[in-house]
Every structure is written in structure tokens, then in C-alpha cells.
Design brief:
Elements (H helix, E strand, L loop, with lengths): L33 H8 L3 E7 L6 E10 L2 E4 L1 H4 L4 E9 L2 E6 L2 E6 L4 E5 L25 E6 L7 E9 L10 E3 L11 E4 L4 E8 L7 E5 H10 L46 H13 L3 H14 L4 H13 L3 H14 L4 H13 L3 H14 L4 H13 L3 H14 L4 H14 L2 H14 L4 H14 L2 H14 L4 H13 L3 H11 L1
Antiparallel strand pairs: 1-2, 1-4, 2-3, 3-7, 4-5, 6-7, 8-9, 8-11, 9-10, 10-13, 11-12, 12-13
Helix pairs in contact: 4-5, 4-6, 5-6, 6-7, 7-8, 8-9, 8-10, 9-10, 10-11, 10-12, 11-12, 12-13, 12-14, 13-14, 14-15, 14-16, 15-16, 16-17
């Protein structure tokens, strides 16, 4: 932040320091190639293998992660089965295999189920991004079906929507041309931006290229009813080697109102999952010391629990323990080198410590892993601005705007750096755009007032400084700027009142 120069009575630039919410999702807007979709989405798709507990009836299907440790699939894939594994293609011929701990929600009419796979959490497998709940696919829209046809792990098939949803009923389907072979049921159907729009469910053998997907809205409905993993989750008994025989039977948990059942439970306070979820709850309540203690216990039980290190890093950051925060994010990255959000938040901590070069390196790595990470571009731009490198800062803000044209903070910060370059016209355009997106950001009005002041448009500057003060009555820089502008117009009484208020 620049220091206010009161001797010259001139307004100066307020450089906004941004800390975005640590877990904020940034949606990619660009159209992706099939190769890009395969690279980003297939690691989150699983091959599900279930049996009846006696090995007489074995079923294979597909599924995908919608949140850490939670998989969605078709109910018909797992119904009647007693135990199962979820196998993930981790790259090449390597496989990760996880024991399915329990069923946490079902919808018989829509043919959907949610499964808990707790030890997948420690592997930091990224959930697939979902399209908005209100999303309705259009006829002719390009789609891709991902799954495991005939047990072949990790395939992608292109197609289009041949008939959009025509009903809101639970049995409504999206008709697509992307083939859905045996074993692909339960896999994701994504659009050309990599967002899930439906769940593959069936194909009609008597029809020519008639394949169907369950609309995403039904997945959202199921999530709202789910009994997500909690203190009773049995984490330690949930992993198996890929070539191991199917594990001991699970006990099916049927959603209330659709039957009854039991859940195999472990003693509270004995699993890493218990402490992890309790730590998350404490963090959300603002109990950061308690959250740190819980995640520490989870790590003691499972030293490879990357997301526990990450969440403990967030709690340490909140408490101002920057060195400990950086250490936790580093541990998470060592376990999972593609943990983009861990690099992002380590970049924040390094910035706060004044380690600007390390901060830029962290943001750059987050961007390398996820080129659509708008927040990383914005924060790297802030570091460049701190280094008095407005050209690089402007390039990063421009990239963030390209990814998401509705990020007001990117326009504000680019506008600030245009002022540094003397490009007042572009600055005013950016700050005006930020105000259109969010009319309640005082900094946008203040900095546009600075640009108008430098143009000599003091009446416009006064109007903007006044608006900033209305939004934030304690905005000392805005009082100072308005006082300077009044002084230029010869209104000394108003100028003195504002300048005294600023001091």
C-alpha cells in the first residue's frame, strides 16, 4: 500500500490486498479439447466391482467423485450387492483401489446412489466439477461419456445431446449419441467445458445409437438428502490392494423413508476420519485451535492424510502461524504434488511473510497444474504489483478476466495498475466495469475517483469519493481524496472538513 502524502495534499493510489476464500471454487469457462477433458476428468472416474458376499454374483460399473471420499453411481450397479471396491486409474498401469465403506444415499426412482470411500480422501483425488443445478443441456450440445466399458479402466467417448430433457420427472433422461457400453453405467457425462451434466445410465440395444443419461438435477437432489461421512466412518478398514479379493461385506445403509438398515460403526475417536471431520466442523465454527488439534490427531493416525495437513495449514494461517501453515501446505504437496490449492494457499502465506519470489513460484505452480485457476492469476498479479511490476500484474489480471469475466476484483486491480502506467482511460473503463458487476465495492469508487482526479475531472472525482464514503464511512483515503478535489474547486471549507476527518 502506498503511504499517504499529506504534505502535497494529493490523493494517492490505494492498492487493494486480496485474500480470496481458501476453498473458493473457480469455474473454467474455456472450451476444452477431448485430450484436456480426458486428462483432467478421468483420474476422478472409478471402476466399481461388487459382489453378493459369496462371490457368486459379480457386477462391474462406473462412478465418479463428487466430493472428497464420496462417489456417485447408478443404484442398479450396487443394489443387492454386499461388498465392493472402487478402482481409480492413477496414471499408466498404476491403480488405486479403495474399499467402499457404506452407502450414504439412494434414489430408486432416479437410479442413483452415493457411496462413501473414506481413504480416498487422503489421496486428494479431485472431485469432478458439476454444472449448476439449474443447468439444462441443449440439443446439439457436445458431450463426452467417461467410464469403464467391459472393465477397461478410463475411456472417453464423444457425442452430442440428441434430445434434451423434456420432463422434470425422476425417470426423465437426456438422450445422447456418446456410446454407453456395459460397465459404463454410473460414469459422468460432461460438456465441452468439463462440467458434469448427467450420469450415464443405459443404452437400448434395439435402437441405433440410443444412449441415455440421468439429468444432473437429480444428483443435486440426492446430495441434499445424503448422510455424509461423520464420526462413525470406518476409515481404517476401507482400503485394499488392486489385486486383493473383495473385502468383507458392507452393511447397506438405506435412506430414511426408503427402508431401514444398519451401518457398520467403529468406536468414536479411533479413526483418522473421526478427527478429520471433527476438525472441519471446528474450523467452520471458528475454533481454530481445536481444529489444529483434531487434524494433528488425524495425521498421527494416518501420516499420508494430505487433506488433513492442508486443512491444518488453513487453521494455522487463520491464527497467524504462517511458518506452521507453510510447513503444512508443503507436507500436503509432498504427498500430492498436484495439489493446486495447497500451492495457492502456500503462496498466500509466503506473501504475508514477505517472501515474494516464493509466493510467485507457488502461484505459478498452481497455474501450471490448473491453467484455469483465476484466483491464482489474481494473487500473482498482486505480488507483481507489490514488486512494482504493473505490466506483469496487468497480464495476470487480464488472464483472470479471460477465464471469468465476472470477477470484479480483477477489474479493480487491473484498473489500479493502469493508473500506475498513466493509462487513465483504461483504468476508468475497468473500474466502471467492476462497479457494474458489484455496486457495493467502495474501493472501485475510490480508485475511479483517483483516476478522475488525475484527469482534472474533480466533480466526477468528488461523486466517486462520496459514494465510497457512503459504503464505508470510515474510508480515510476517500475523505482525503474528496478534500483534495474540493480544494481544487476552491471550496476550502468543505476541503478542510474532509481533510480533518481523514487525519
Amino acid at each position: 500500500m502506498n503511504i499517504l502524502n499529506r504534505k502535497t495534499n494529493r490523493s494517492v493510489l490505494f492498492v487493494l490486498f486480496l485474500i480470496l476464500p481458501a476453498l473458493a471454487e473457480v469455474h473454467a469457462q474455456a472450451v476444452l479439447t477431448p485430450k484436456e477433458i480426458a486428462r483432467t476428468a478421468l483420474p476422478s472416474v472409478v471402476l466399481i466391482i461388487c459382489d453378493d458376499g459369496e462371490g457368486k454374483n459379480i457386477v462391474q460399473g462406473s462412478g465418479f467423485f463428487i466430493k472428497p471420499g464420496v462417489i456417485v453411481t447408478n443404484l442398479h450397479v450396487i443394489e443387492g450387492m454386499k461388498r465392493g471396491l472402487a478402482n481409480v486409474a492413477a496414471g499408466g498401469d498404476q491403480r488405486l483401489s479403495f474399499r467402499i465403506a457404506r452407502i450414504i444415499a439412494i434414489d430408486r426412482e432416479a437410479d442413483l446412489a452415493l457411496l462413501s470411500v473414506p481413504t480416498a480422501i487422503s489421496k486428494s483425488i479431485a472431485p469432478l466439477a458439476l454444472a449448476p443445478e439449474s443447468y439444462v443441456p441443449e440439443t446439439g450440445e457436445v458431450v463426452y461419456a467417461l467410464g469403464n466399458p467391459e472393465g477397461k479402466v478410463g475411456t472417453i467417448s464423444p457425442g452430442i445431446v440428441s434430445a434434451a430433457i423434456r420432463s422434470s420427472l425422476k425417470k426423465a433422461r437426456i438422450q445422447i449419441t456418446a456410446p454407453i457400453s456395459s460397465g459404463s453405467s454410473g460414469g459422468p457425462v460432461v460438456n465441452d467445458r468439463g462440467k458434469v451434466i448427467g450420469v450415464a445410465v443405459e443404452s437400448l440395444s434395439e435402437g441405433q445409437n440410443l444412449n441415455f443419461a440421468i439429468p444432473l438435477s437429480h444428483v443435486y437432489d440426492l446430495i441434499k438428502t445424503a448422510n455424509f461421512p461423520d464420526a462413525n466412518e470406518n476409515s481404517q478398514d476401507a482400503i485394499a490392494h488392486y489385486d486383493e479379493k473383495l473385502p468383507a461385506p458392507w452393511v447397506q445403509n438405506v435412506v430414511a423413508g426408503q427402508g431401514s438398515g444398519n451401518v457398520r460403526r467403529s468406536e468414536p475417536g479411533t479413526t483418522a476420519a473421526f478427527f478429520f471431520y471433527r476438525g472441519n466442523s471446528n474450523f467452520e465454527k471458528g475454533l481454530f485451535s481445536e481444529a489444529i488439534a483434531d487434524h494433528t490427531k488425524a495425521i498421527e493416525i494416518d501420516p499420508q492424510y494430505a487433506v488433513a495437513y492442508y486443512n491444518r495449514g488453513l487453521a494455522n494461517y487463520k491464527q497467524g502461524n504462517l511458518s506452521l501453515s507453510i510447513s503444512d501446505f508443503t507436507n500436503a504437496i509432498q504427498i500430492n504434488p498436484r495439489y493446486a490449492v495447497a500451492y495457492y494457499n502456500r503462496g498466500l502465506a509466503n506473501y504475508k511473510q514477505g517472501n515474494l519470489s516464493l509466493s510467485i513460484s507457488d502461484y505459478s505452480e498452481a497455474i501450471r497444474i490448473n491453467p484455469q485457476y483465476a484466483a491464482a492469476y489474481i494473487n500473482r498479479g498482486l505480488v507483481y504489483a507489490t514488486q512494482r511490476n504493473p505490466e506483469f500484474a496487468i497480464a495476470d489480471y487480464s488472464k483472470a478476466i479471460q477465464i471469468n469475466p465476472r470477477i470484479a476484483i480483477a477489474y479493480i486491480n487491473r484498473g489500479i495498475n493502469y493508473i500506475k502506467q498513466g493509462n487513465l482511460k483504461s483504468s476508468i473503463a475497468d473500474l466502471t466495469k467492476a462497479i457494474e458487476i458489484n455496486p457495493q465495492i467502495a474501493d472501485a469508487y475510490y480508485n475511479r475517483g483517483v483516476a478522475y482526479d488525475k484527469q482534472g475531472n474533480w466533480s466526477f472525482a468528488i461523486a466517486d469519493f462520496t459514494k465510497a464514503i457512503q459504503i464505508n464511512p470510515q474510508y480515510d483515503l476517500a475523505y482525503n481524496g474528496r478534500g483534495n478535489a474540493y480544494c481544487q474547486l476552491g471550496e476550502k471549507s468543505r476541503a478542510n472538513t474532509d481533510l480533518k476527518r481523514a487525519v
